Amino acid sequence: MARPPAASCDPGPAEQLRETGRPYSAVPYKARAPDPGEAGPVNTTTITSGPLTALIARAAVRYAYVPAMLLGVNGAALALTAAGVANGIGKMWLPALLATAVAASFAAERLLPYEPGWNSPVGDGGRDTAHTFVNETLILGSVAAIPALAAVVSVADFWPHQWPLWAQLLVAVLAADAGITLVHYASHKIGVLWRFHAVHHSVKRFYGLNGLMKHPLHQTIEMTAGVTPLLLVGLPVEVASLLALAVAVQLLLQHSNADYRVGPAKYVLALNEGHRFHHLKWAGIGDVNFGLFTLIWDHLLRTYSYDPSRRFTSDDLGMAAKPNYPVRYLPQLTEPFKPGGACSTSTAGTATPESA
């Protein structure tokens, strides 16, 4: 099939200038720390008015939500895993902790929303629930299959079994972060990968479940890249279970609509303040901040971007080149297989539709 004109796929500099007031640039938002005395983000939900209980709740979300999720939920998982290993009670805690994390995510977004409108479904609630159920079921199934997978792909048992469980999880997180981040980066450069990754970028509101909204084939590719190196060196199933929960918690935080703060950690941890830039809808402009757990690889690849004054709305999200991307679950699963399923890449202004 002949290629249509590139303009049908990429909105180009003119549209970006009209919609943003900025000339075309691959990374228009300069990566920098705020200057001394510079004001914080424009869109800041107040926590200084209302009843005392509401003030306390909003302050807790702003400053304690991220530590509670990263340290509290994952810490509980570490403790329960240690108890399970000692007493042979298995990993029945995993779905319960995941449900707790999802519930906490929804509560935080309603107590202190970055954008109140993003808390209301726009015909996407059932779809996002389906994505979450399918993808988390696949992850849980993969964890259960790890002993069999390890028997097939393990090269040698170099895993540091003697280390504390938290240190083993940290090693797994950093290794998985590298593999998943690099596949994510490649998915914005390689046409066939972008077709499947485009499902994730079709969102028009930015909230926790967006992180779990992925085409199952693309999620499988990402997780394979993140976990296979660990399996090769003897990843234990207990650590894999902890890693699976840590990934889910991180995705909830990374896409959260909660207006939380983490201070200077936002330059290192891949959380929502930076990840919103990744979801800007213009081709090439969102090719920044690819990291899952950390922004280490973005600093190394020079794809890190942040502007403390940037304000995001639904008009900034989605894909400018494909504004009518299917919204419902099953059409999203089939869209990548269609001739016009997506642009060949999302890269700065040069994307052309794939031929079929």
From TrEMBL:
<feature type="transmembrane region" description="Helical">
    <location>
        <begin position="230"/>
        <end position="253"/>
    </location>
</feature>
<feature type="transmembrane region" description="Helical">
    <location>
        <begin position="63"/>
        <end position="86"/>
    </location>
</feature>
<dbReference type="Pfam" id="PF04116">
    <property type="entry name" value="FA_hydroxylase"/>
</dbReference>
<feature type="transmembrane region" description="Helical">
    <location>
        <begin position="92"/>
        <end position="112"/>
    </location>
</feature>
<feature type="domain" description="Fatty acid hydroxylase">
    <location>
        <begin position="170"/>
        <end position="303"/>
    </location>
</feature>
<keyword id="KW-0472">Membrane</keyword>
<dbReference type="InterPro" id="IPR006694">
    <property type="entry name" value="Fatty_acid_hydroxylase"/>
</dbReference>
<keyword id="KW-0812">Transmembrane</keyword>
<dbReference type="GO" id="GO:0008610">
    <property type="term" value="P:lipid biosynthetic process"/>
</dbReference>
<feature type="transmembrane region" description="Helical">
    <location>
        <begin position="165"/>
        <end position="186"/>
    </location>
</feature>
<feature type="transmembrane region" description="Helical">
    <location>
        <begin position="133"/>
        <end position="159"/>
    </location>
</feature>
<dbReference type="GO" id="GO:0016491">
    <property type="term" value="F:oxidoreductase activity"/>
</dbReference>
<dbReference type="GO" id="GO:0016020">
    <property type="term" value="C:membrane"/>
</dbReference>
<feature type="region of interest" description="Disordered">
    <location>
        <begin position="1"/>
        <end position="24"/>
    </location>
</feature>
<protein>
    <submittedName>
        <fullName>Sterol desaturase family protein</fullName>
    </submittedName>
</protein>
<dbReference type="InterPro" id="IPR050307">
    <property type="entry name" value="Sterol_Desaturase_Related"/>
</dbReference>
<keyword id="KW-1133">Transmembrane helix</keyword>
<dbReference type="GO" id="GO:0005506">
    <property type="term" value="F:iron ion binding"/>
</dbReference>
